[in-house]
Amino acid sequence: MRPTVRTPELWVIFPVLAVLVLVNLSNNLWAPDLYVPVSIAAAALLIWIARQSGLFWTDLGLGPHWVRNGFRWGLPFVGVVAILYSAAFVIPAGQQFFVDERLAETSLWEVLWLALVRVPFGTVLLEEVAFRGVLYGLFRRRFGPLFATIGSSVLFGLWHVLPTIPLANSVPAIGDALGPGVDASLVSVLVAVAFTTVAGVGFVMLRRWSHSLLAPSLVHCATNSLGYLFAWVARV
Asked: For residue 185, what pLDDT band results from cuts at 50, 70 and 90?
């Protein structure tokens, strides 16, 4: 017997957004030291809400039979990210943008923890479950794939407002590039929101092509983790 497909109620989106707002505040302002456990708990809660609303595992990109497809689509793009980072790093004009003063006193073990634990189990797990899994799945059931792609990606962009605010002060090249008299923090936030919105669309397309959350998760993880590693090497 085929499972009954029911359209999630529109109000389900609001508790999902409420969870994300609270987690964003917690991770960036209230309790950043609890970043990983809070993110894991939030991801589990969002999946539970989505499942209770009627979404299937395949709606969330978590169907087990699509795992191989997730690797097939994700790994080549991981290679592209690694090549682009390496090319930018060997160019003097590009290397300065890897310099991040937040990593000035960071040890190798600390940066490995950031790249191998904080990013995959804190950042990527929550963001992929939330934006390419739950929100995309809810929007797609209610409004179709186009709205789901745009809506989840715009919300992904807005998610990055708080974490981007201190970026201009920690990456000197940003302020140098903008010059005096320009609010580097504001420009950084606007650029980050625009960039992550576009990146969100790309991640959604990977999720749609592969039918798996694994594909965008691999690329997302490579982008952030390699960013930390290259930034650490740049300051050594």
From this structure: confident
Among 157, 153, 160, which residue's Cα sits nearest to residue 194?
157
DSSP assigned state of 59? T
Cα dihedral across residues 199, 200, 205, 211: positive or negative? positive
CA dihedral 123, 220, 184, 231 (to 10 degrees): 90
Q: pTM to 2 decimals?
A: 0.91
Sign of CA dihedral 18, 21, 27, 31: negative
Q: At what angle do helices 184-210 and 214-235 cross, to 10 degrees?
A: 140
- Smallest Cα–Cα separation from 159: which of 183, 134, 123, 125? 123
Q: H-type helices in 96-213, by residue range?
A: 108-113, 125-127, 136-143, 145-159, 161-164, 167-170, 172-178, 184-210
Q: For residue 232, give both structure tokens.
A: 């650490």
Write the DSSP symbol of residue 188.
H
Run of H or E including 96: none
DSSP string over 111-136: HHHIIIIIIIIIIIHHHIIIIIIIIH
Residue range 198-235, pLDDT digits in tens: 999 999 999 999 999 999 999 999 999 999 999 898 87
| Rounded-to-integer distance, Cα 159 and Cα 178, Å | 24
